[in-house]
Fold this sequence. Notes:
Strand order of the largest sheet: 4-3-6-1-7-8
Number of helices: 2
Strand content: 15-25%
Order of helices and strands: HEEEEEEEEEEEEEEEEEEEEEEEEEHE
Radius of gyration: 37 Å
Structural class: mainly beta
Number of strands: 26
Amino acid sequence: xxxxxxxxxxxxxxxxxxxxxxxxxxxxxxxxxxxxxxxxxxxxxxxxxxxxxxxxxxxxxxxxxxxxxxxxxxxxxxxxxxxxxxxxxxxxxxxxxxxxxxxxxxxxxxxxxxxxxxxxxxxxxxxxxxxxxxxxxxxxxxxxxxxxxxxxxxxxxxxxxxxxxxxxxxxxxxxxxxxxxxxxxxxxxxxxxxxxxxxxxxxxxxxxxxxxxxxxxxxxxxxxxxxxxxxxxxxxxxxxxxxxxxxxxxxxxxxxxxxxxxxxxxxxxxxxxxxxxxxxxxxxxxxxxxxxxxxxxxxxxxxxxxxxxxxxxxxxxxxxxxxxxxxxxxxxxxxxxxxxxxxxxxxxxxxxxxxxxxxxxxxxxxxxxxxxxxxxxxxxxxxxxxxxxxxxxxxxxxxxxxxxxxxxxxxxxxxxxxxxxxxxxxxxxxxxxxxxxxxxxxxxxxxxxxxxxxxxxxxxxxxxxxxxxxxxxxxxxxxxxxxxxxxxxxxxxxxxxxxxxxxxxxxxxxxxxxxxxxxxxxxxxxxxxxxxxxxxxxxxxxxxxxxxxxxxxxxxxxxxxxxxxxxxxxxxxxxxxxxxxxxxxxxxxxxxxxxxxx
Length: 598
């Protein structure tokens, strides 16, 4: 009897042990995770979207009723083990989306992903997730892992080495805003079928290097923003990429501020349409390889190298294009760039060249051999701020369709001469500030410029303090309404022939010659001033002006009191109508010979 009681006791003891063991045995669970609660009795979401039935759940060594949100009585780190049946599921989409207190998770073989095709958004915005073990995943059927770890800001490393990815088509946005991500194991990661890699490492600002040698990209279509904001990435090798189907590489390296070199040499971008902002603000980039690059479908390079302030030389001579139309700001702000080779670059289809070289302050030479333009209509600020350029040969430029030339050479402080007599300007509507601040410019040839549609030439030569010769023969100004500050500050200009000017539309001549302190004579007798309303300080600070013919100027629309002159020499000759003279006579020195013209 005693033995029988003892045997029963032993049996119960063993049964209890086995039962307890089974409750806490990790092999009895699909995953084991840790969650953080920050206060007592805090309700913490555990799972966002159930892909199947929860069979068992153990929290802090205590079995509880299955739930997706649990109230923890104490603050701290809690262990949660879950057995879940996902045998009928094909998608784990958003399973842990926005579970912001999840800190770690380990999956076991009981989490059978054999039939799963969709892992996208699975851990979307799990902002506290630091580690994950997916080594038991069977991913042979998975087609997408897009945005799987989007906004996982605390995740440091991920191992994909066990993933079977032969059917994978999208990894778009995989690690967007992975601020802490430092390493990813892509060994054996087959990307042969992948079409979308856009934004995969977007803003992974702790990532210093990444090995993509396993990547095969014969079907890749989008690499847009692939490494955008990877500010610590120093180098990347994508030279093995098969690029024949890539269409979009916009912002691929945008704000990769530590990246020093990229080589696109020998890549066949057969279908590539866009490289907008591809290297935007890559401020450490010193080398870009573009030898034997084929891009016959490329249409736009908007801001492609903007802010590449360490880049000293670019060679586009073997960058083969056929359809490019937009080069807006392509080299904007390349402050260290000294030389660009654009020889043989096919620019015939380019329509936008505005700000193309703007702020390239060390740029000394541009090779435009065989660089032929055909349909360009925008040249706004094209060379503005190229303060080291001393000369430019634009003889191959065709400008028949250009509409905007404002600031085109603004602040090119080292340019000494420009011959633009080959330019066709019939369609240009705005030329304001075109040469403003070109302080070394001595000579400009604008012979035969038929600017019949230009209504704005405001401050066109303003601040050209060295200018001594301007050829404006046959310069058509028939539509110009304002010549405000046209030659303002041209302090070296001694004479100028404006006899071809048609001013029938002019309403403003204010400050037109202000500061032309070397100008000695000026004949404006051909000027039509029927619509003139303002000529404030037109001849201010013309301290050497000794002959002025404004005999055609009418005062009908001018105010009774106008300030036109100051600092005139004591002696000179003025031809003027009586009405205008009566309004400004107190500004003329007594020693001047006045001829009143009726």
